[in-house]
Amino acid sequence: MTQQSLTQRLANPTRFMELSGWILPWLAAAAAALIAYALYLAFFVAPPDYQQGETVKIMFIHVPAAWLGMMGYALIAVSSFGYLVFRHPLADVSAKAAAPIGAAFAFLALATGSLWGKPMWGTYWVWDARLTSMLILLFLYLGLMALRSAIEDDALAGKLCAVLGLVGVSILPIIKFSVDWWNTLHQPASVIRMDGPTIHSDLLWPLLFSAVGFSLLFFALHMKGMRNEVLRRRLESLTMAEVDRARTIPSASAAAE
Amino acid sequence: MDLGPHAAFIWASYAIYGLVLAALVVWLIWDGSRLKAKLADLEARGVTRRSQRAATPPRGS
Amino acid sequence: MSAFLTLLKRDLLLQVREGGAVGTALGFYLVVVALMPLGLGPDLNLLSRIAPGVLWIALLLAALLSLPRIFEADDEDGSLEVMATGDLPLELATAAKALAHWISTGIPLALLAPVLGILLNLDLAAYPVLVATMLAGTPAISFLGAVGAALTLRARRGGLLLALLVLPLYIPTLIFGIAAISAATGGPSGFTASFLILVAISLFSLVIGPLAAAAAIRFQTQ
Predict the structure, then answer these.
(1) Can you tell me the ipTM of this complex?
(2) What are C101-142's pLDDT values in tens digits?
(3) Do chains C and B touch (3 or more CB pairs under 8 A)?
(4) Cβ within 8 Å, pair A160-C219
(5) Would you say the pTM of this structure is higher than 0.90?
């Protein structure tokens, strides 16, 4: 029963705003602290990799970005499911807020991957399985955001984006599988791994702190985005109510609610 | 700090990372305060929500 | 069952009668393929190497053009709302419409491909494989395309948005279609594996396509 009442409590937008207003500053502070420490470790403690030299430092931000790009879409899938199946009112808010943040991290994974690739393999882009999959993931994000902006009715946009999100997540494993297949077809010899054959333990700590720190940042940004969206919808409904009120006879305004 | 022959790539990576995330943070904060301002404005004009409804009649603005 | 077949027949007739709609897709296919040598140079060796890829990608683009028609006409005259609330489950109705699209557009495109292969100096051994893989893969194009058509039914910039939404979903079909052709023309072995996976993807789309499309239509006609 505690589980159920927790969900019910969280489902109430007002309650969500209260809770998140309290949590958010701590979350943001924790994220900032961990990221700062990770940066310190990365630049002042971590040694150069014996193979890649100092460019291994790019890995400290590339790997978390890739991970968060994927996690963002998983979050959208769960939110979409919640919205379609349980009609959870904040689920759509969650999905909408997650999209730009997940897309940003996917883009950063591609950008840092590209900048890592130039010193490593000599080209800014290489069609290896992971970068290609990340690029397709970015397309899926863009599709979601484009669909949402193309539909005027908020509620309808939410539902259609939820459908698209679920279709995307069910095809995603197939896409990943097909890209891996395609990659081995065209590059049978070398297996290019973005993080090198093994990760030296001295390099592991900055990576871990960075991963956790940026994950917390993701959640903080997501929470802030959800709060904004709740405010936006509140504003919208109040504006609509006021428009209605201004159009009807003043004495009958109480009936507008 | 010597970051080797490829230092430019390392700086560029961290720079673009910082830029994009900073832009996100700034946008979210700016968007939030703009929305709060508009809501405060509506509230000042007497438009209130069900759950906060006072007994005061609305001023027709 | 008979309701399904009736709807299928009706849609087929509409697609075929709507003067030149199918022809336009075929014409587009031809033009895009013809552009390739114009853009890449007439080196026959190069062309024969890229022919399977070009033929597949141009087919995807040509199919994209025809997708909005699956639901548009019925939405405009209100038949879609009737279907959403009728006796035949909406999932079967959308399946019938997607099937009609495959029969009226997908199959002709697949059959035109070998003809266009001549323009690209396609390896002779590849011809039967080309047609087989396209016939196996185009159902996925129609059924996943139907999802895109349903989602963008009333959206602004519907046609372009449809392309953006649907092309990533076509990637597995594209990859395995090409893999099967390369395997059959002397590349790495594994034709059977690629072909079966291609078929599996199409079957998967037969299930997920109507489900998602029906959900999307229901939300828009409520």
Answers:
(1) 0.90
(2) 999 999 999 999 999 999 898 888 889 999 999 999 999 999
(3) no
(4) yes
(5) no
